[in-house]
Fold:
Amino acid sequence: DAGVTQSPTHLIKTRGQQVTLRCSPISGHKSVSWYQQVLGQGPQFIFQYYEKEERGRGNFPDRFSARQFPNYSSELNVNALLLGDSALYLCASSVLGQGQNEQFFGPGTRLTVL
Amino acid sequence: QKEVEQDPGPLSVPEGAIVSLNCTYSNSAFQYFMWYRQYSRKGPELLMYTYSSGNKEDGRFTAQVDKSSKYISLFIRDSQPSDSATYLCAMRKTSYDKVIFGPGTSLSVIP
Structure:
């Protein structure tokens, strides 16, 4: 079975630009979460979506937004990019609604803001 | 005080050694505890997932949770060079809640 997939793998943007990151969850998983991981730190929670509804939001500015589609894939949008947005953006999927809801991560999208 | 603390290392051990990785946390509401392994420039890989206090073993890995001390551990027996990675502890209040990660411990296993 395919794991969580993310695209693109790498991205270079300049300050002020906008970026869209994409995630496809594991087949059968209905929940997607987004995390930001700055070099040398653990992932920080940004959003959780379940059945196209936002279920949780971390302490990130309104420049960050996300959505989930009927096929459970998801997009993360970041507007007005800042140098500090440079990070590895991770998507995690889980079944949710059953059992312990383990989260499985994708390989991430590495965003560099110049 | 951060919610989850973890010694960042780096930790360097010889092949075959027993490795002990630890995290402390401040929020007594955490009930679910996880350990992830992250290789350089890759996404985290779930190693262990435990609920409440107690031990859980899976092959060379053993996870321990002591909720009374707010302390969790991961033990790796017979460590291998392929175990060289960053180990992230993580926890959540409910099975639906966001996951809070520690900063990670970098481990190198020397052949």
User: Anything to note?
Assistant: DSSP finds no helices and eleven strands in chain B. Chain B touches chain A through 26 residues (CB under 8 Å).
